[in-house]
Amino acid sequence: MKPFHKDFKLQGKSFKTVTEIIDFSQEISMDVYLFFKDWFNEKDFVKVKTSGSTGIPKVIQLQKTHMINSALATGNFFNLPEKTTALLCMSPSFIAGKMMLVRALILGWHLDVVEAVSNPLKDSEKQYDFTAMVPIQLKNSLTAIYKIKQLIVGGGVVSKELLNEIQSVKTAIYATYGMTETITHIAVKKLNKFGDGIDNSNVISSAVENSYYQILPNITIATDQRGCLVINAPKVSSEEIITNDLVEIISDNEFNWLGRIDGVVNSGGIKLIPEQIEEKLSKIISQRFFVAGIPDAVLGEKLVLIIEDGSTNVSKYHNHLSAKILKQIQQLQKLEKYEKPKAVYVIPNFVETSTKKINRKESLKLIKNID
Asked: In 3-state terms, what secondary structure has residue 77?
């Protein structure tokens, strides 16, 4: 395969040689420049660091041939041929940003790179065929999201509130499932454009809840004895990938993601999956939150709810909470007996990973001195 597609453009500029690409990339950012230097060197791999959202960040090696295969799969799945206009608004330091660069190079896209800010479309006057965002970028870009034809969103769960808001937009939006080891997504899930204009929130809600992750071609899935997803994707990984994601296999090419097994809370012998409880809570709580287990002398672990509210100091249930949060807490009675948090904590700001995901482990440390 040629070093790059003849139709590839970066910031509107065409190139004849690899050297031209590398030299021009210095004008964009150091991260883009360093990636192109790595991509075009003599090595057959690229070193990439994981996000650290589920553990300590680490550096792994990804084969360039696997990254090319991933780019081709995305192009085929979303029907994004040469001269596709695309926007990179995520950090090129991590795999999601790097793969946007690879897709553009290999598929011949016309790519614009902007700073990875929370509202990347704010000053954009152009329209694009494709981009990738994290949920906070999508939420902050809703008034301008019409500028994007197809969008994939990853790096966090899309809240119920945001799901409702994107039903009326023209952009086709998909959630992605993947990780650094699978070279971004190996499966996608439709998030909007249900019912072809049907104005019925119940129909839309049901459609969203019954929309499953569909795996990309040349991938097979199974579960292990724990109920966790096992991925066989020879085009993007030389080894079988055993995840810590609890899933329900729907068919040979569909699955429903339930949550992380390493986040399961064993409370008095009852196993609770935080993500399933958070799904229900997302209908009640509008700001960022999560549930987790903390040690308890009687139950072993007790389920607690942590809410982010920048207008308050660190506090516990009933202690100086805003009327809005108190009203939300009162609605917790709607949950099943074992799903009701034993305590509710409010902190000003969550600790985040470098990719803006909630770092649950570090955020939990902020509540230690409340009791």
From this structure: helix
CA gap 200, 94 in Å, rounded:
39
| Cβ-contact 343, 303 below 8 angstroms | no
What is the dotted CATH code of the domain comprising 9-218? 3.40.50.12780
Q: Where are the domains of the chain?
A: 9-218, 264-367
Distance (Å, whole) CA 150 – CA 130: 5
Alpha-carbon gap, residue 157 to 163, rounded angstroms? 10
For the chain, the average pLDDT equals 87
| Cβ atoms of 312 and 346 closer than 8 Å | yes
One-letter amino acid of 87: L
pLDDT (tens digit per residue) in 257-280? 988 888 889 888 888 988 888 888
Element (H, E) at 291: strand 289-296
Q: How far is CA 321 from the centre of its chain?
A: 30
Q: 8, 105 in Cβ contact below 8 A?
A: yes
Whether CATH 3.40.50.620 fits 264-367: no
pLDDT tens column, 142-195: 999 999 999 999 887 787 788 888 998 999 999 999 988 898 899 999 999 876
Question: What's residue 330's pLDDT?
Answer: 75
Cβ neighbours for 352, distance < 8 A, ≥ 6 positions apart:
358, 359
Give every CB contact of residue 269 below 8 A, 6+ residues apart in sequence: none
The Cα 118–Cα 75 span in angstroms is 26
Strands 45-49 and 13-14: unpaired
The Cβ of residue 299 has, within 10 Å, a number of other Cβ atoms equal to 16
| Angstrom distance (rounded) from CA 32 to CA 151 | 21
Q: What is the CA radius of gyration of the chain?
A: 22
